[in-house]
Amino acid sequence: MNDKLEIIKRKAVQIFSEEDLDRKINSDKKLTIKLGADPSRPDLHIGHSVVLRVLKQFQDMGHEVVFVVGDFTGMIGDPSGKNKTRPALTFEQTRKSAETYLEQATKILDKNKTRIAFNSEWLSKMNFADVIKLTSKYTVARIMERDDFKNRFENNLPLSMHELLYPLMQGHDSVELKADIEIGGTDQTFNLLVGRELQKDYGQESQVVMTFPLLVGLDGKEKMSKSLDNYIGLTDSPFEKFEKSMKIPDVVLRQYFELATDLSTDEIDKIMSGDIREAHMLFAKELLKMYDDVNEFESIKERYINIAKGEIPDNVEEVKIDKKEINICDLLVEIGFASSKSEAKRMILGNGVKVDGEVITDINKVITIAEGKVVQFGKNRFKKIF
Amino acid sequence: MNDKLEIIKRKAVQIFSEEDLDRKINSDKKLTIKLGADPSRPDLHIGHSVVLRVLKQFQDMGHEVVFVVGDFTGMIGDPSGKNKTRPALTFEQTRKSAETYLEQATKILDKNKTRIAFNSEWLSKMNFADVIKLTSKYTVARIMERDDFKNRFENNLPLSMHELLYPLMQGHDSVELKADIEIGGTDQTFNLLVGRELQKDYGQESQVVMTFPLLVGLDGKEKMSKSLDNYIGLTDSPFEKFEKSMKIPDVVLRQYFELATDLSTDEIDKIMSGDIREAHMLFAKELLKMYDDVNEFESIKERYINIAKGEIPDNVEEVKIDKKEINICDLLVEIGFASSKSEAKRMILGNGVKVDGEVITDINKVITIAEGKVVQFGKNRFKKIF
Question: Beta-carbon neighbour count of residue A115 at 10 Å?
Fold first, then answer.
């Protein structure tokens, strides 16, 4: 038990406060551990796994994890219309994305010790007077300590008043849930501390706040995120996981091992002192071990190496086409490479499509169906048709 | 009609914008003129009369006046608990104070062209999502331009987040009422402009904002207000109005004439070039003319002069006491000088009570009732008993 706590503490960047944490852990109470989930981004990647694996440790110690889905703000979207990446979601969308979220998260977590809460449950019931009460608990000076608020305010960049309310909502979630501990990435430190402070203002014991490092993306620069397409998704196929692992910049590979796997420091040292290409493959192997089937590792590795050499891999999926001849665009849709004819056209015009090794440039090209004919898109997508 | 507009314009400190004002006035539309009323301070004084008399001019031009009673915020009070002069009011209190307000205001205004609106009607129906929509219309930079917010923020003085919401509420009132013009004291400029901006954001034509000077109080320093006890109330008795007029500092008397009476500049010049004590009395005469009965002026003046000389005035009210002897405290209650025996005691112990010119110091003193005996409290309250 203390070992688990030590692992958690070692990974944490900051703890507010370690004394409170020790006291709560030793209290024999079943603790409520809160993690916020953004319903507009339901796809989890190994960046998320850093905190998820901390949560798992807490579950192993007997505590309960609550994912708070921020569906209330999700449904409002961005009323200022400035943030176009935040369209308003419907009730159904938020429920569906919460389901997707849970499904992925339980690749790591114990489903029986995990529950989902939607913050619209309490926030949608609050009226203007309740909002005034909530906002009266917080000073402008304290909210403006948040770096991005401060920078935008001081540099005359747009900052709408409603944005100041979001950290308070998130903090109010902790009050509603009577959270004992809230964890998150270091970029969430400010928001998590708001919850800690608000609980005190509402007469509760303050939650312990623990922050963990953010995993850098495959570009080696930005935080891993789906929108930057620099991520390894938990639901990526084993082959995708392998392929993406090979793309991790060498200089950050150690960090990936430290944050996203369970290997000990000794094991990581040993791997990193060997061949770097081999080290990438071993990282992929760890991912398959955790999220998929490690038995697939050798065949995936072989396939990857073949493709890298420019060869058509073994075991390419076969698709039956019930025609003698077919337009290339229709064919791409039929075998699932394109979702529409217009997408298929773009793929061809980008010179990404080959049939039996020959690049197709004519979008009206008619393909004769023949046993074993190989259709290829990009470097690593293959289908055999018959 | 243009004369009335000219009088209004001459008194205004700022107009946003004069062009809009002229256009609206010339549109033949019956305009809605908004004035905010604070339900926690229902006692009107001649400081309020400055804008009330402007409103009367608008009414004479055919427009309608709406008093918006800020009962919503009034009922919330100050949730931060910092402002002890702002206790939460009940629904009944806000209604009663609105009634009191209207009763006093119609000493100046035409009751048939005046209506009262309570902002709880719409603000209490707003939920958190509505608040977010409202706050999304306004940037932090713009709200922080308000002087007192800016100063408190920059000087690290307490400023709670809910305070930033108040100007938006007041502005939202203009949206709800579709106000054409809002008027107020110069101290309200910022808040009135919020309404002007919000209306535009909600797709309405922006209200014209007009601000008027604040009348300085009898102390010659602070803005006139009941809480500072430096005011001449619209419902003060004619004698109180006279007495307080005599206390106006000489240096601000011209300003009182300009802002609180209808006299022309020529008339004011003439009065101010004469005897200053006489000028104070003429100011009192104007007040009686507007709010009471000017016929009382001469007798009040005479009484005032007698008291100033230390004499007992003529025409002191007589009260019949159905006893031969009475305790002094009971007597003070009986004749209405004190509302309780304990108050009577305090009056005596403060050496403020005289009987036939003799100061009473013994709270157990027994007074023999006799025709024409004079009881006096302070300098100017007298009753004859028999």
Answer: 12
